[in-house]
Amino acid sequence: MKYLAQLDSLTGVKMKGLCTALGLPSSGRKDFLHNQLSSTLSLPPDQQTLPPSPRILSIDMGLRNMAFSLLTLPKITTRSKTLPRRIHLQAWNRLSLIPPNVLPSSEDPYSPQNMSQTAYKLITSQFLPLRPTHILIERQRFRTRGQAAVQEWTVRVNMLESMLHAVLTSLRLEDRWPGGTLVSVNPKTVASFYACEDEKAVKGAKRAQEIKKMKIATVATWLKDGTKGLVLDSGEVLDMERRFLDKFDGKRLPRRKKSDPEPTVEELRMAEERLEKIDDLADSLLQGVIWLTWQENRRMALADGVHKLLESGVMNSMLIDRE
């Protein structure tokens, strides 16, 4: 295969860039990067290509702030040289799986017994009726921002993540989700791809918060620009678009003049709260779009060679933004 010989000629820097473009971890020794690139590009054809009418359900994990997006593409034919640029957003929603106020005397909603029922009901009543061919689940971390302690809330979300994988795998093996593909998506890999062009501008302790704001702004731009490749396909999605943009436009403080006083703590807190309410929706949509971009980059690498992909100038741009 042409790409295997081409990999041997790449520098470590180019291998890192190629890994980022294909959705692979980009840190490590050169031999590690080479091995994971060759393994990924050597997968069987049925694991390298999307079905003719893919339906991608992208899930941003959370108990009180879970968000999901259902993305579809126009029918892909054997003559299609590239994935369609217009992505259809069929569903876009945010869920709270746990009641906001749990009384001390009530049954523990986070017990394994109750969490397993929550996971099963979520999948059978919310997710499988959407008929997804692929389900992308955001991979959870064990620690938050490098903290030494593992937070109890983190353990709960990790438990839900594991239960979703277990239930979906069981349903697939029982032919209740026939042919379904389950993918665990590392948010660090998504962030690396998203921020690769702005890496120098977004460093240090504020990096995560800046990337969050950039993601929200990117989705808002897609929604506001009707000429972009995002098609909203239902009244519910259009309603969510309106709510998203209302919160996005409302999160900004009025432009200050030099004579204006500094914004108060309360004004800053309210702006941050509005941002928090929509970042999960942005994350679920971006995760799905970026994953589709990785699939297109892999197709380009297999069809034209890795050098052609590296020279294309588009490998770091999202599918939805390509001409």
From TrEMBL:
PROSITE patterns, A to Z: SAP
Domain SAP residues, every copy: 7-41
SUPFAM superfamilies, sorted: Ribonuclease H-like
Top-level taxon: Eukaryota
GO molecular function, one term: Y-form DNA binding
Record key words, sorted: Endonuclease, Hydrolase, Nuclease
A Pfam family this chain is assigned to: Ydc2-catalyt
Gene Ontology CC terms: mitochondrion
Name used for this protein in its record: Mitochondrial cruciform cutting endonuclease 1
